[in-house]
Design a protein that fits this description.
Oligomer: single chain
CATH topology of the largest domain: Aminoglycoside 3'-phosphotransferase, Chain: A, domain 2
Number of strands: 11
Helix content: 40-55%
Number of helices: 11
Distance between the termini: 56 Å
Number of domains: 2
Strand content: 15-25%
CATH class of the largest domain: Alpha Beta
Order of helices and strands: HEEEHEEEEHHHHEEEEHHHHH
Shape: globular
Length: 327
């Protein structure tokens, strides 16, 4: 019987592949779909990621890291930071520590997560919009690696096409009523994606407050974006919607009455670096709902949730709330 190694052991094994000092320290940073460890040397900090079974393949992660390398080069001199991949002694970007698990090492992104209750002001929200626009501008000039996930309508709304690799079909996850709403959101999203077919490239896909570090640089906010694990080919307008959902108060709590101001500030920041036609704003509530509908598949992934049906029902509740948001 094959022994299942714990993430700490796998991380220690992976570290041996890198040219780091013997006194390098390793400590747990976060545990979720990926287990992340902080790696500290005498003069630098890194993040070592242990990727879970049944989610991303080593080829997927190499594609992500090649994109991050190109993104970092494209963002030199911009007001946004992103992690850079660190190669092993052998020049690889990934350490395969078992037949079905792998690790990688990336540079640290300075700052801290900010939310409305702990210092996220309108200036920071504007910079969040601008940072995403700068990433999209950079993506326009990057050739997408072939093994990145694809977040088109099939990738978002079909069991077979989902990069979340669900173990349950959507019919087994949702009630009859929720399935009807799921199909309605999927159909409306397909129509929007068809309209915006030219606005397509590598997107972050999970651009939320929890995946951004903010820090002060004089009177300005410096933005650092991380957790590109789900980055892939998708529609740029959709990429605005996870953050807009956070600013509206979802999924953490109830509706934030400051949302209209925060939404306009975020979009103004985006427009400071990239065009965004005003008429496209009418699509935002549907695409915000699409995020939650799509995440029904995530709840059915390997070892993601012990209650996937209940979690999917909650996601569909959030999808319906998103459809009611002001435009």
């Amino acid at each position: 019987m094959t022994r299942i190694r714990q993430p700490e052991e796998l991380a220690g094994m992976a570290l041996l592949a890198y040219d780091l000092a013997p006194d390098t320290r390793l400590s747990l940073l976060a545990s979720g779909l990926t287990t992340a460890f902080q790696v500290v040397t005498a003069d630098r900090r890194y993040v070592l990621r242990v990727h879970r079974r049944g989610y991303r393949t080593a080829a997927n992660t190499r594609a992500e890291l090649n994109y991050l390398r190109d993104l970092g080069e494209a963002l030199v001199g911009a007001d946004v930071d992103s992690p850079r991949p660190v190669s092993t002694r052998d020049g690889d970007l990934v350490v395969e520590v078992s037949d079905d698990q792998h690790c990688d090492l990336i540079t640290w992104v300075d700052g801290e997560v900010r939310r409305p209750e702990n210092g996220l002001d309108v200036g920071a929200v504007r910079q969040l919009g601008r940072a995403l626009a700068l990433i999209h501008n950079a993506s326009d000039g990057i050739t997408a690696p072939s093994d990145l996930p694809r977040w088109d309508a099939d990738g978002m709304f079909t069991t077979a096409g989902s990069p979340f690799r669900p173990l349950m079909d959507i019919d087994d996850l949702l009630s009859t009523a929720d399935r009807a709403d799921f199909d309605d959101i999927a159909g409306r999203t397909r129509e929007i994606f068809a309209e915006l077919s030219t606005e397509f490239g590598v997107i972050h896909f999970d651009y939320i407050l929890g995946n951004v570090h903010l820090s002060r640089n004089g009177n300005e906010w410096q933005v650092g974006v991380f957790d590109f694990e789900d980055c892939g080919l998708g529609h740029y307008l959709y990429d605005l919607c996870p953050m807009l959902g956070n600013l509206a108060g979802y999924p953490a709590g109830t509706y934030n009455p400051d949302y209209p101001v925060l939404r306009d500030t975020f979009l103004d920041g985006y427009r400071s670096a990239r065009p965004l036609p005003v008429e496209w704003e009418r699509h935002l509530p549907v695409l915000m709902a699409a995020r939650h509908a799509n995440h029904c598949f995530l709840t059915a992934g390997l070892n993601v949730s012990p209650t996937p049906r209940e979690d999917a029902a909650w996601r569909m509740d959030l999808a319906r709330l998103s459809l009611e948001l002001p435009v």
